[in-house]
Every structure is written in structure tokens, then in C-alpha cells.
Design goal:
The complex is a heterodimer of chains A (about 425) and B (about 290). With about 425 residues, chain A is of the alpha/beta class. Chain A has 17 helices and 12 strands. In chain A, helix 12 crosses helix 13. Classes of the chains: A alpha/beta (about 425), B mainly alpha (about 290).
Chain lengths: ~425, ~290
């Protein structure tokens, strides 16, 4: 008995430790969902029958629940037989829950996906092909959407989502600091060199003022790589090319700012925004989603399109709303998705609440948005769209993003040279492509 | 004083050395413990401090540990803008029911594995213990599908059901029961008691410290549980506190002061459980868990 008990204790202890260790790293594996690309024709039959659709979203919490509710009510008023049941989760937890639901065949009827993750969901057959529904809808015209935003959610002739909203990243700058340092404001003609020169003049370590902040992670890297004329993958997407000379130069552009014009200790959550809001940061590369949070700063600030190097490039983040192949109500789901993304009510609600930007083409709808200040140069949001680059996507998207971000972090902390870090990441990303 | 010095001088330098040596080692131990204690409590103080800061004050570098001015409004805001009490009640209810049921099943299973003789008992026990090796992430999908077929997705039942049987709890209580002297039970059997009576009247009362330990572990596990409630519950009415609080985190920015106010509320019940169960936790683990 005794040896057995002792063995058991040791065994259980290992088990607990093993459980604790895996808990931190593993995530639920999503098996591919129902793989039949069911193009079930829209059944416009029996419109009177009450239908409940679920809609799962990450972009409503914590600040826009009431706005989403307003859109839902407007939709239900026009479609009295359909009621929408909203489910929410924070972005950080959203995909954990969605994967489980999709893999177990209980996917919500309609849900939200960001562009980067949409590809793997589409490939797994989890998303309903909306093309036949759109074609059957006589009053629908795809031109209602901003063309690029509509196109990115197509693959192999399948429209697997409609664009709900988009955002881009601009160069934010503190005008007061520029005035105090006697530096000219950024404009569309700026290059990296101009940014570097201005940042050096703005930086005053004695008063804790820094010239520049640009996050060092996957999303900034793919953009500066494009600005430097590089490409992430080779043409047929079989190997990484981001570790070539252009890639190294792009990463060095980010990392070279450290301690010269950019604080090396502001990489925690929200630390960059705290720095900018406290008036201690001259320039800041961040998204237009910060507009409302910066409304009441005691200094004046504005935005500009980003400086380029070999060429100009801006990030483009689009979110789609999609329907599940498992939904029993494809026609109703289409009606809801269409309303949510392009109806006058939804567009107006979003704009009034600064809830990202609806991806609609009609610029006249943005009048109220463009007239708001700050920033004075709000047009930059749309100017940036003339040279956008979408993030590189592969099926194992989150792994790839983590690999690249971790490599950049090693280079940032000086654990590896930029070249070695990128080489290491390229090898790992290539393994994902196999 | 003079007397004292003289005595120590008389007793010789050897003793004095020992005395100083002991003092020094004690000082080192106290310093290490104090540093460890501070390191442990610091995140809690930081949370508490953040929960009393205004959103603006949080953004002024360098961060201040003592908030000035002290902002009490965060607690009011989070309670009004957010069904905090509902989440708290859900968490309390789920944790209480899950703990009670888990103790009941673990005690019965532990008794069977410790005292009943049947073929394949130890093999079965080993198999059951082996399930401790399987992390929740692996079983979550089949568990979800199971709940789906039971029609329990998005219900209190689904929150409680998966945690009512626990391999860890069974193991803990089996070890505790094995440590009890058999003679007491044998005497009871002589007097005509059955297993049920022995279990209820003798084994359970004697194993109370171990049961209290399990209660604390189980309550804390249920209270902190995040992944399962996140996945199985959709309606805000059923959300437990950790899941509800996670909804306060925005994709781009988070109101940390509100989140920390909510987290502070979430920590209080755990502290109470710990204060009550503290001595049992330590005694229970040494009594049962690590006995050879």
C-alpha cells in the first residue's frame, strides 16, 4: 500500500503541475466545421414566421452596447418577424469562444470577424457563401460598400462576408510640442528621414518629452516593410521574404528609434496613450479609433498620413460580418447583415458614436464625421485609403503574428540582432506554410 | 544591565557568537520573508490603488501608488453601469453549489477507494487520477457538445455540472481517510454499524480538516474559473464575475480604474473564504496530501 500511495502522490503532483503549465499555453483546437459550402438559396418564403437570429460581436463592448441596441431596434422595426439576440465578448476572449461554438456545430447565426482571422474561417467551410443571397436581393448593389473593403472578403468567387467597418493608422502629433521646438508639422510629403529629424528635435529627455512612438509588433512591421518596398511573402506565398535586406532595414527603422527618440519602457498596455495624453509625446503612430479618447486633451493635436520611405503605405483593418453555414435562416441572416453594414440608420448611428467607420462608399454620408474636430485634418483618414496594404494572412494567422511579434521583441530587447531575429521568425513562419 | 553584560562576559565568547549568529540568520530570514510578503501583496495594493484613481490621474506618469485625489466614484459607476451585483450573486451561487456537490461526491468516492474492497479498485483509482493530467482546454469541446445535447448551453446547470465530480477532491479525501485509524471503524462494525453509518458518523467528522481544505480549493477554483463560463454562457444574466469583468476590456483601450474596482469586489469573497479556511488548508494538505 505504501509504495502505491507514494507513487500516487508523485503522480498527482506531476499531473497538477502539467495541467497548470498547459493551461497557460494551449488553446482549444478548432476542428474544421461543416465543410459543405452550402449555397442554400434564399428562401423568401413565409416572411410572417417569427425568426430569432443570434449575432455574436466583439466590437460592441464595453462602450457601444447602446449603439448596437439602437441598430438592432431599427432593424426589428422594419422586419417585425425577425428578432436579433446579441451576444458579446471582449476581443481578447472572443475567438476562444467562437472556435468552440463553430467546432461543436453551435455557431451563432451571424457573427463578426476581423480580416486577419476571416480567411481561416472561410477555408474551414464555416462561413455561408453570401453571393447567391446578394444576387437574389434585387435592391442590393455591392457598390454601396467601399470597393476594397468588399473585395477583401472574397475568395475563389465566394463572398464570405460583408464589410462592417474599417479603420486605419495615422501619424498623430502634438502641435504644442512642435511649436515649442520650432519644427514644421508633418504633411503628406514626409519621409522616414523627415520623421527622424523632427523626432530628434522634439526629444528632450530632461523634461521627459519623447519625439516619437511606434509600436514594435507584427502590424507595424508589415506596414513599414511595405513602405520600404519589401514584401512579406514571395509571389506564390510558399516562403517568407520579410527577412531580406528590405525587411531588416524596415525592422531597424522601428528598433533604431529606441532610446533615441522613443522611450524603451512604454510597451505595456496603454502606456503609449498615457504618454501622449499627458503631453509628453511628439508623434505617435496609432489608429483612428483613438480620436474619441483624445477629444479632451489640454493641448492641440492633429493627424497626418504616415511618412513613407520607398513608397507610401497605410494599414487597413477591416471587419466583416458573416453568416454561419449552420444557420437555418440564410435569407433573414442576409437581411440583417446588409442592414447592419449599409443601412442609413446603422451608418448614422456608427458615425454619431465614433464607433469605427462604416465601410460604405458614399463619401457624402461622412459629412458629420469629417466636420468634427479635433483633429482638423480628419480627411487624412480617407487620404490614407489611396495606398493601403492589408495584413498578410495565412491559415494559422495568430501563430504567425505571435512569431513575428516575439522575434521583434527579442530584437527590441537586444537578445538577438535584427537579422537573426527575422531569420528565426522566417524559419518558423515557413514551417506554418507547409 | 551591568549584571547582564558581566554574565555574558563570563559565559565566554563562544556563546555570544552563537547568539549573534542566530540573530543574523533570523534577520536574514525576516528580511527575505518581508520582501517576499511585499512582493506578494504589491499587486493587490496596486489594484486597490488603481480602483481609487480617476481616469485622468491614471495617465499621468510616473504612476502614483497613493491616489490623490481619492476617487470613490469608480465603485458607484461600475455598480450602476454594469450588473455587478448580478455577476457577484451568480459567482457566489455557482461556487457554493459546485463546492457542496463536489465535496459530497468526492467524499463518497474517496471512502469507496479507501475502504471498500472490490476487484480493480486501485487500477480504477489510478485511471481516475490520471484524468488530472488532461487539461480543461482539451476536454472543453466534447464537454460543450455534451451540454448541447443535454440542452444545457447557456444555463446555470452547465456552469455547475462539470465541476461536481473532481479527481483531485477524490484523491485528497481518499488520502485523508486512509490516514484515519481503522480500529475505530472496526469497533463500529462490531456494534453492527453499516458502511453508511461509519461513513457519516465516524469518517466524515474525523476528516473535517481535509474536507475544509477541499472546500477552499473548490470554492476558489470555481470562483476563478473563466474559460468554461466564458464559453458556455451567452446571456448577461448568467455571467459570472470574471466573465462579466472581461467585458470591461475594450479592444483598443480599457478603463483600468473601473476594471480594478470590479476586481477588488471580486477578491473580497475569496479573502473571506481564505481567512476562515486558512488553518485547515495548511493542516489538511500536510495531513492528507503528502502522507507517505
Amino acid at each position: 500500500m505504501r509504495p502505491l500511495s507514494r507513487a500516487l502522490v508523485a503522480f498527482a503532483a506531476t499531473a497538477i503541475v502539467a495541467g497548470a503549465c498547459t493551461g497557460a499555453t494551449s488553446s482549444p483546437s478548432a476542428s474544421t466545421g461543416d465543410a459543405s459550402p452550402s449555397g442554400s438559396a434564399p428562401s423568401a418564403s413565409s416572411p410572417a414566421e417569427p425568426v430569432t437570429l443570434t449575432y455574436f460581436t466583439f466590437s460592441a463592448v464595453p462602450d457601444h452596447l447602446a449603439d448596437l441596441d439602437a441598430i438592432v431596434q431599427a432593424f426589428e422595426q422594419k422586419n417585425p418577424n425577425i428578432s436579433i439576440e446579441v451576444q458579446t465578448a471582449a476581443y481578447a476572449d472572443y475567438f476562444t469562444k467562437l472556435q468552440t461554438q463553430v467546432a461543436s456545430g453551435s455557431a451563432p447565426d451571424t457573427f463578426e470577424l476581423n480580416y486577419e482571422n476571416s480567411v481561416s474561417y472561410a477555408n474551414s467551410g464555416a462561413l455561408l457563401d453570401l453571393s447567391p443571397l446578394a444576387a437574389a436581393d434585387a435592391s442590393f448593389d455591392p457598390a454601396v460598400y467601399y470597393p476594397k473593403a468588399y473585395e477583401v472578403f472574397q475568395a475563389d468567387g465566394v463572398q464570405f462576408g460583408v464589410p462592417a467597418h474599417f479603420s486605419d493608422v495615422l501619424l498623430f502629433y502634438n502641435k504644442d510640442l512642435f511649436d515649442a521646438a520650432g519644427v514644421a508639422y508633418p504633411d503628406a510629403s514626409w519621409t522616414w528621414e523627415d520623421e527622424r529629424a523632427a523626432a530628434e528635435k522634439l526629444t528632450d529627455k530632461a523634461t521627459g518629452v519623447w519625439g516619437d512612438f511606434q509600436p514594435i509588433q507584427f502590424f507595424e512591421f508589415y506596414k513599414v516593410l511595405a513602405q520600404n518596398g519589401g514584401s512579406f511573402f514571395n509571389a506564390d506565398k510558399t516562403a517568407s521574404t520579410f527577412n531580406d535586406a528590405k525587411g531588416v532595414e524596415a525592422a531597424e527603422w522601428l528598433i533604431g528609434k529606441l532610446d533615441k527618440t522613443m522611450p524603451s519602457d512604454a510597451f505595456g498596455p496603454d502606456q503609449d496613450s498615457a504618454l501622449f495624453k499627458s503631453g509628453k509625446l511628439g508623434m505617435w503612430h496609432t489608429g483612428i479609433w483613438m480620436f474619441s479618447a483624445l477629444k479632451d486633451t489640454p493641448f492641440t493635436w492633429d493627424v497626418s498620413v504616415e511618412p513613407g520611405n520607398v513608397t507610401k503605405a497605410h494599414q487597413f483593418f477591416a471587419n466583416a460580418v458573416v453568416a454561419s453555414t449552420a444557420t437555418e435562416h440564410p435569407a433573414e441572416a442576409w437581411a440583417w447583415l446588409r442592414f447592419l453594414t449599409s443601412s442609413k440608420e446603422a451608418v448614422e448611428t456608427r458615425l454619431a458614436a465614433s464607433w469605427e467607420l462604416p465601410a460604405v462608399a458614399d463619401q457624402s454620408l461622412f459629412g458629420s464625421y469629417l466636420s468634427q474636430t479635433p483633429p482638423d485634418n480628419r480627411e487624412a483618414v480617407f487620404d490614407a485609403l489611396s495606398n493601403i496594404v492589408t495584413p498578410p494572412v495565412i491559415e494559422q494567422q495568430s501563430q504567425m503574428q505571435d512569431i513575428v511579434t516575439q522575434a521583434l521583441e527579442k530584437a527590441r530587447l537586444g537578445q538577438l540582432s535584427v537579422q537573426d531575429a527575422l531569420n528565426e521568425a522566417a524559419t518558423q513562419v515557413d514551417a506554418l506554410l507547409q | 544591565m551591568v549584571e547582564l553584560t558581566r554574565t555574558s562576559a563570563l559565559t565566554g565568547t563562544g556563546l555570544r557568537k552563537v547568539h549573534w549568529g542566530r540573530l543574523a540568520s533570523r534577520a536574514v530570514i525576516y528580511a527575505a520573508l518581508t520582501a517576499g510578503g511585499l512582493a506578494m501583496i504589491f499587486p493587490f495594493l496596486w489594484m486597490l490603488s488603481t480602483s481609487f484613481q480617476s481616469a485622468g490621474a491614471l495617465l499621468v506618469p510616473p504612476p502614483q501608488l497613493i491616489p490623490s485625489p481619492i476617487e470613490l466614484g469608480n465603485y458607484a459607476e461600475i455598480a450602476s453601469a454594469f450588473p455587478l451585483w448580478r455577476f457577484l450573486l451568480n459567482s457566489l451561487g455557482v461556487a457554493a453549489v459546485a463546492t457542496t456537490l463536489q465535496i459530497a461526491t468526492s467524499a463518497m468516492a474517496g471512502y469507496a477507494f479507501a475502504r471498500l474492497r472490490f476487484r480493480g479498485r486501485d487500477a480504477l483509482f489510478l485511471l481516475y487520477i490520471a484524468t488530472l493530467m488532461v487539461p480543461l482546454q482539451v476536454t472543453i469541446l466534447p464537454l460543450f457538445v455534451e451540454m448541447k445535447y443535454l440542452g444545457l448551453v447557456d444555463s446555470y446547470g452547465a456552469l455547475v455540472l462539470p465541476s461536481i465530480a473532481s479527481a483531485f477532491g477524490t484523491f485528497l479525501l481518499r488520502q485523508a481517510f486512509l490516514g484515519l485509524p481503522r480500529e475505530l471503524e472496526e469497533a463500529a462494525f462490531m456494534d453492527g454499524a453499516g458502511h453508511l453509518t461509519v461513513f457519516r458518523r465516524i469518517v466524515l467528522p474525523l476528516a473535517l480538516p481535509a474536507i475544509a481544505t477541499l472546500a477552499v480549493f473548490s470554492f476558489v477554483a470555481s470562483w476563478n474559473s473563466f474559460l468554461w463560463p466564458l464559453i458556455i454562457v451567452n446571456s448577461p444574466d448568467l455571467m459570472t464575475l470574471p466573465v462579466g469583468l472581461s467585458n470591461l476590456q475594450g479592444r483598443y483601450a480599457t478603463a483600468w480604474n473601473l476594471l480594478m474596482a470590479g476586481s477588488t469586489v471580486a477578491v473580497v469573497p475569496i479573502l473571506i473564504v481564505y481567512v476562515i479556511g486558512q488553518k485547515y488548508v495548511i493542516r489538511g494538505v500536510t495531513l492528507s496530501g503528502l502522507k507517505g
